[in-house]
Design brief:
alpha/beta, 24% helix
Length: 208
Amino acid sequence: MFQRRTVDMTVPSLRSTVSIIMKIGVLALQGDFAEHLSMLRRLGVEAAEVRLPRHLDDLDGLIIPGGESTTIGKLAVDFDLIEPLRQFGKTHAIWGTCAGAIFLSKDVRRPQPLLGLMDIIVQRNAFGRQVDSFEADLPIPELGALPYHAVFIRAPIIESVFGEARVLATLPDGRIVAAQQGKLLATSFHPELTEDVRFHEYFLALAR
């Protein structure tokens, strides 16, 4: 259903970021972590799977991938990762995509393990089931003038932002699908499933 685009969409102003030697971790408990690792390596960044607290020690930033948010949360509890991740997020960049955005949030209006780092309230599975997945071109000024082609799979919606969080992108109907709070990012969609590297470059600029 979703085809990777082959057009080079690199933002010139961000290219200097990837020339700096960085090490970015991807939480590899569950979900599509392999696709993020592949994108990071394509950008010339050292990428590492994170499954234990000690794997956070020498990282410049961390990506929490899409998957199943309750499963990611339960496994993070089992591997004693919750508090180390919270401490890491106080000083380092973290980006949550889809389920990762849920895990980063402070509230999802149901009981499940959360990091509670971002001032956002998230609604899980806001668009329905897998068959309701879709794609959309979004204007995101931080990434340049070219619209960003976003892939939504059983996606959440960022119901609201508050405190220090701000909106980065919305759908045409105004529903929030990307937010930022300092070095923290949350996206409802899956940038790792496209050939557009701009969102990964934007995250690297935050982690630099």
